[in-house]
UniProtKB/TrEMBL annotation:
This is PepSY domain-containing protein. The keyword ATP-binding does not apply. The chain crosses the membrane at residues 12-34, 158-178, 208-228, 355-377. InterPro entries: PepSY-ass_TM. The keyword Kinase does not apply. Keywords: Membrane, Transmembrane, Transmembrane helix. The lineage of its organism: Bacteria, Pseudomonadati, Bacteroidota, Sphingobacteriia, Sphingobacteriales. Signal peptide: none annotated.
Amino acid sequence: MTFKKIMLFLHRWIGLLSGLVVFIVSITGAIYVFEKELFALFHPSYVTVAAQKGEKTLPLSILKANAQHVTDHPINIIRIPATTGQQEAYIFEALKRRPKNDIVGAFVNKEIIYWDRIFVDPYSGRVLGKIDVETNFFWIVRQIHQFLYLRRDVGSTIVGSSVLLFIITLLSGLFLWWPKNRKVAVKRLKINFSTKWKRLNYDLHQVLGFYAFLVALVIAATGLVWSFKWWETSIYWLMDGKRPNMQIEAPKAPNNTMSEASAASLDLIWSDVVKKHTVHQGVFINLLHEVSQANATIYNKGNTGWSASDTHAYDLRNGKHYFKRLQSDKTLGMKWRNSNYDIHVGKIAGRTGMWIAFVASLICASLPVTGFCIWYGRKFKKKKMRS
């Protein structure tokens, strides 16, 4: 058996084995690229706010208190939009997951005990809407994309294994596509829409597969980070020589009069964040009530090609800042890991990159379909010739 026949054998049977999962993951991935934009399109009253000229936002503690009125669960996540662009609502979330050793059921939504997301107008303080994230369309799409809506440990293994096989089909497909000379190359770069269906299907498979190859490879490689810890660790090792410690220690017991989280401490934290970052691309605040800790991640416009963010940790009992991890202090591996999602969805290259990722994902979804049609057509033809 020649090397080309071995590549063809691997390409065909690995493609058939992983095809259904690759199709599902690619379709859901294409939808999720524009998750934020689509949610705003379908729920404009939740997302968009109108501010009068010169009007200031209300204190964060008041906005949080207003959001707390519409949920029975403690709010532990705050998402604040960018200071530039269209005015948007502040988002407050109450989220609690089951411990990893206490996950019940076969489906991924059993991991979540509750997850409320509340949208608040930062100028009037009015609650604009509330959703149960578990039942939200885009959350379900994401869980299908990552876990096939199965338990995390089961679904991620199936998806990750299929994506690994998909990478092999991409590489073997490029080898099979590679032309012997320039004349053949010209033909393999164009789709002949005037030919018969079988030839058209073949062109769609090999030509679109070639054009999407590099982007598809990047999407697949970055996606494996969420499926396999060893894959993530390997990239860290290549970049840094080791896996960095990303853990932020909880604050020590304070020496002041405050003993627990208060509205004043939250406003002090937010005031310090605004002082440090007058302009930002969004802020994510994680309130770890059980250890009296607040971690604020501030996203900035980077000029190094990476997605830039600074993280500051505060004591929730008194609002004091006690830890920082700036973009400039991060290792190469940390910068990559913080940028991995934006690379995965094309956001690292702005709106253009997102559209490229969207189109590439649709092409990836088409490859198992056109590949199956090629295999089935040839198999059916052989049976017909024998009869």
